[in-house]
Write a structure and sequence with these properties.
This protein is an alpha+beta fold. Strand 6 and strand 7 form a beta hairpin. The chain has 2 domains: 241 residues; 148 residues, 2-Layer Sandwich (Heat Shock Protein 90). Helices cover 60% and strands 7% of the residues. The protein starts with a helix and ends with a helix. Strands 2-4-5-7-6 form a 5-stranded mixed beta sheet.
């Protein structure tokens, strides 16, 4: 298998390669619409102070940190399989965003003052600005990055390089922001006090909004996969978050608008992780169903092969048995003190006929299992039945029993495979003869009838005077390998039913009166209406 073919086999089950459907678009649209509705409803209450909720801020930060680190891990695992540079950049973005949460919450005024860490009112704002401007740049880079793969041998190197680079950058940025005497004067840059934003912070939301909009446009242009679609939703919720925090809440910390923005941020951080988990489960469910279906198909093929082998053995066994019987009869005629050459010659002719019949049976079974090679012609069922009765020697097999042919001369012709339908009739006749073995010879009655119906069908019935069918096994008689005969294979009636159904007909059974069973099958007639008695003349 070539690398390209191997890749094509992998891509359909990867989130970054799965195309989004209409349902995904509707769900994403509904989520954005609900977020906008919540934004509108929040407008009158956004400035309300909610400072007493600061105790839950560490829990919020921990949730965002864990979610974004998990998302980054999933994306790195996806990159390990797909080797896409775009996925690697996106994973780096989530790792960058999640890692910055830790120094942001640690330096947030009033949260961890007891740890002795610098709680200047500017530090947390600086980390927030870095996170808010950096993350959309990563998504923008993902959107414009060409879909090219890295060499497989370099995948592990790039994963380690990205992780080390992100952690190193965040560590260096933290040192710059927190170090004493670093030369970075943020005395009034971001925050005027612990709650009120300063002059520089007023530019951060505007730049962030511009980056979000550019990222959304780039993703809309690129939009090909489920991941692209939901990244649009991510940037959309971040856009709503910044509007809630910086404009509706006037940038004041601990206001209702500020907390609502934090909720949007938590939702935004969770979107890709939730979608990846849901789609991964769905993909593996589809793979599981496909594997189960393939296993069932393989088992069905094995069963079909067993059934085919048993069918061939069953159908060929009948002419072979007849050949053995005729051969023994010929030997007896030749072993007489005065050999009856005419009788022996007749037995030899019957052996030849049965040999040709066996060959036709094998050819018929082969064509039955080959699509596009089923030769069907216009058939006179009356003539076909007469030929089968003559070839089967049923009168001799019944001994002193009677064979009655009640053939409707007005029955229309049908379209079918002559060899297959002959074998169906022969099987039903053989079953009837076998069923009447326990019956005294003079009570054996075999009736074969044809009749036309008002539904555009010809009905063929084979009636015997045997003991009849056991009601307990009536529902199973057409199943493969089910038989009530000591030496039976359970394939004859299954073959008959499959053949009749393949011809557009049906096969059924009913009790005979006063005793015995009736096996009937129907076949659709030809569209021509002149193929009846006149056509037979």
């Amino acid at each position: 298998m070539t690398p390209s073919s191997d890749q094509s086999a992998v891509e359909p089950v990867l989130l970054s390669s799965l195309s989004h459907g209409r349902n995904q678009i509707w769900l994403a649209g509904l989520m954005l619409a609900f977020s906008l509705l919540a934004l509108v409803l929040m407008v009158p209450h956004a400035a309300r102070p909610m400072t007493n909720l600061i105790v839950i801020l560490p829990a919020y930060a921990a949730a965002v940190l864990v979610i974004e680190l998990f998302t980054s891990t999933f994306l790195l695992a996806l990159f390990y399989v797909q080797r896409s540079r775009a996925i690697l950049i996106l994973a780096a973005g989530y790792l960058f965003s999640g890692t910055l949460v830790a120094p942001w919450i640690v330096t947030f005024p009033g949260v961890f003052g007891s740890l002795g860490i610098d709680e200047s009112i500017q530090s947390a704002a600086a980390f927030a600005a870095l996170k808010r401007l950096g993350f959309p740049l990563f998504i923008l880079a993902y959107a414009v990055m060409p879909d090219r793969q890295l060499a497989r041998r370099r995948v592990a190197f790039w994963v380690v390089a990205v992780v080390v680079s992100v952690f190193s950058f965040v560590a260096m940025a933290s040192w710059v922001i927190l170090a004493e005497g670093s030369g970075l004067h943020l005395s009034t840059a971001f925050m005027m006090d612990a709650l009120t934003p300063g002059l520089l912070w007023r530019f951060i939301p505007a730049v962030a909004i511009a980056l979000y909009v550019v990222g959304i446009v780039a993703l809309v242009v690129r939009r090909r996969t489920i991941l692209d679609l939901w990244l649009i939703v991510v940037l959309g919720t971040l856009l709503i978050e910044i509007i809630q925090i910086s404009y509706l809440g006037a940038g004041v910390r601990m206001s209702l608008g500020w907390w609502a923005g934090r909720l949007y941020g938590l939702v935004s951080a969770s979107i890709v992780l939730v979608v990846m988990l849901a789609e991964t489960i769905a993909v593996y469910a589809r793979l599981s169903r496909a594997t189960a279906a393939e296993r069932r198909a393989r088992q069905n093929r094995l069963t079909a092969m067993e059934a085919l082998s048993a069918t061939i053995a069953h159908e060929v066994n009948q002419p072979l048995g007849s050949m053995v019987t005729n051969a023994n009869a010929g030997l007896r005629w030749l072993d007489k003190s005065q050999p009856a050459l005419d009788e022996a010659r007749a037995a030899m002719h019957r052996i030849v006929e049965e040999g040709h019949r066996a060959n036709k049976v094998v050819s018929s079974i082969r064509t039955m299992f080959m699509k596009g090679t089923r030769e069907r012609t216009q058939l006179d069922l009356n003539l076909l039945i007469e030929q089968v009765v003559k070839q089967s020697g049923v009168e001799a097999r019944l001994g002193h029993g009677a064979v009655m042919l009640d053939l409707d001369c007005q029955a229309p012709f049908v379209i079918g495979n002559a060899i297959q339908l002959q074998q169906v009739v022969a099987n039903l006749i053989d079953n009837a003869v076998e069923a009447m073995r326990p019956v005294p010879a003079r009570q054996r009655r075999l009736r074969i009838a044809t009749s036309g119906s008002d539904h555009g069908e010809v009905v063929v019935s084979v009636e015997d005077a045997g003991p009849g069918l056991d009601p307990a096994t009536l529902d199973r008689i057409f199943e493969p390998f089910f038989t009530t005969k000591a030496d039976g294979m359970g394939m004859g009636l299954m073959f008959c039913r499959s053949t009749i159904e393949a011809h557009g007909g049906r096969l059924w059974t009913s009790p005979n009166r006063p005793q015995g069973a009736v096996f009937s099958f129907s076949l659709p007639t030809t569209p021509q209406h002149d193929t009846t008695a006149e056509a037979r003349e």
